Amino acid sequence: xxxxxxxxxxxxxxxxxxxxxxxxxxxxxxxxxxxxxxxxxxxxxxxxxxxxxxxxxxxxxxxxxxxxxxxxxxxxxxxxxxxxxxxxxxxxxxxxxxxxxxxxxxxxxxxxxxxxxxxxxxxxxxxxxxxxxxxxxxxxxxxxxxxxxxxxxxxxxxxxxxxxxxxxxxxxxxxxxxxxxxxxxxxxxxxxxxxxxxxxxxxxxxxxx
Length: 209
Prior knowledge:
Radius of gyration: 17 Å
Structural class: mainly alpha
Strand order of the largest sheet: 1-2
Number of helices: 7
Order of helices and strands: HHHHEHHEH
Largest sheet: 2 strands, antiparallel
Helix content: over 70%
Strand content: under 5%
Oligomer: single chain
């Protein structure tokens, strides 16, 4: 069995499994469950790095593997998965196609660039990263579900256009040369709280609670 198997990548794989399951739910017509899976993937991604860094005896190969596997999973979770969600909305064909292509392309460029810069940074310093360049791909796990939850306040004929426009904006922000401060533990807990609120909102909207 090739690869490295330890607890440092378990949460990353759980997030990936959640997104793949979410993609199948789009094909099955269960839109709310798909967005729920997107939120769960985002929550997993928030904490997988901290879990990986808590493993003090990782080899250099395991560290590089962790970077690569995290980005590959992020591409599926926050690039391909949102593209599938967006494409199933019926706006004009060129718009939904463009939105799907752009969000995957933006995610893969940002993640590839991050990998290059992160490997270089780790060769020169042991300090934790303090900021990111470009908007982190994980933000789609908060922005898109919030748009979905607010869809009742948007005319249904307009909603697909709003959703696709946000997808295009997000894809541009992925590769924009902007500095985004890395979240502190307080910030991560705030996002986690937002994620829990979204989860509860889904459950209530679908009469599970």
